[in-house]
Design goal:
CATH class of the domain at 6-179 and 219-246 and 283-297: Alpha Beta
Radius of gyration: 19 Å
CATH architecture of the domain at 6-179 and 219-246 and 283-297: 3-Layer(aba) Sandwich
Number of strands: 13
Shape: globular
Largest sheet: 7 strands, parallel
CATH topology of the domain at 6-179 and 219-246 and 283-297: Rossmann fold
Helix content: 25-40%
Strand order of the largest sheet: 3-2-1-4-5-6-11
Bound molecules: uridine-diphosphate-N-acetylglucosamine
Oligomer: single chain
């Protein structure tokens, strides 16, 4: 699909970026990976670095000169680099804006100057915010409730505007609760990475609230596949598209399934107070992903987690 194409991935040493780099190389593309190594880890690019079709450049999306150099001769850009944490964005809204909005404008400007064909942007379901309507569909009003959500909404709006005004082919993919190999275990990480680390240590994980909140967990392999499709899908430019499993699960049910998949059914989740700012339910309408990308997810939360455990054991 992307064989012989020259592709650039920002945030290449991160969780989603590095999984995407590996799949692009397997597909026959030549890949330039950028990362400022703020969150990224070189070990995530160990396999990629062995390929003669991979080049790594250390630098920042806030640096326009760096981006212009990196984008020479590139056909497709995947913009995965981001300030990624919702709670951190509440502590550092200005930095979040500089990276996520300023960085997006730089990426789009460099792509125009370098005649890049298409830019695929990693957006987030956090832009839906606290709207009660379920499932979340792309036509809904957006009401982000964190600086992070606002920054992703603004970056998406820039993508759409650049498509309309300059004819640049842009596609925004709204990721829902992505998990999988290489996701970091830190207080600011997604819940799956945190719980997997606790379970591996034989410790009881802590569910915030009563555990009846639900999420549309999406396995990273599905996210990567949606990205590959978004590079060439004829009806995708100018659109923002949900990428999710479309099958929500409560934290209580998912935690029990995690114990089972790890052979640790004797563990028991502890409960702590509800996390401030947490939304209750999140799940995606994925009709547009099917129509515009021909994307149908292959995993749900439980089958994705089982695959993650198999991958970790190898
Ligand atoms: C996540 C992403 C966010 C993204 C959004 C939609 C992270 C850190 N956040 O937010 O960037 O925009 O999905 O794709 O990846 N929980 C526990 N115990 C814990 C940690 C979390 O019970 O130790 C609960 C939370 O209270 C929440 C659920 O697990 O109800 C999911 O939390 P989390 O993984 O942090 O994701 P979101 O807040 O949904």
């Amino acid at each position: 699909m992307l064989k012989d194409k020259k592709v650039l991935v920002t945030g290449a040493a991160g969780f989603i970026g590095s999984n995407l780099v590996d799949a692009l190389l397997a597909d026959g593309a030549s890949v330039v990976g950028l990362d400022n190594m703020f969150n990224g880890r070189m070990e995530n690019l160990a396999d990629a670095s062995a390929s003669p079709r991979f080049a790594f450049l250390k630098g920042d999306v806030r640096d326009m000169t760096f981006l212009l150099d990196a984008m020479a001769g590139i056909d497709v850009v995947y913009h995965e680099a981001a300030f990624t944490s919702v709670p951190q964005s509440i502590k550092m809204p200005q930095l979040c804006n500089d990276v996520n909005v300023g960085g997006m404008v730089n990426v789009l400007n460099a792509a125009r100057v370098r005649d890049v064909k298409r830019v695929v942007f990693a957006s987030s379901s956090s832009i839906y915010g606290d709207t009660p309507t379920l499932p979340k569909h792309e036509g809904m009003p957006l009401r982000p409730i964190s600086p992070y959500g606002v920054s992703k909404m603004a970056a998406e709006a820039y993508c759409t505007a650049y498509h309309h005004v300059y004819g640049l082919e842009t596609v925004s993919l709204r990721y829902f609760n992505v998990f999988g190999p290489r996701q970091k275990d830190s207080p600011y990480s997604g819940v799956v990475a945190i719980f997997l680390a606790r379970i591996a240590e034989g410790k009881n994980p802590t569910i915030f609230g009563d555990g009846e909140q639900s999420r549309d967990f999406t396995y990273v392999k599905d996210v990567v596949r949606a990205n590959m499709l978004a590079a060439t899908a004829p009806d995708a430019p100018g659109k923002a598209i949900n990428v999710a499993s479309g099958r929500p699960i409560t934290m209580n049910d998912f935690t029990k399934a995690m114990f089972k998949a790890c052979g640790k059914e004797h563990l028991q989740a502890q409960h702590a107070g509800k996390r401030p700012g947490d939304i209750l339910h999140s799940f995606a309408d994925i009709t547009l992903a099917k129509e515009a990308l021909d994307f149908v997810p292959r995993y749900d939360a439980v089958s994705g987690f089982e695959e993650l455990v198999r991958t970790m054991r190898q």
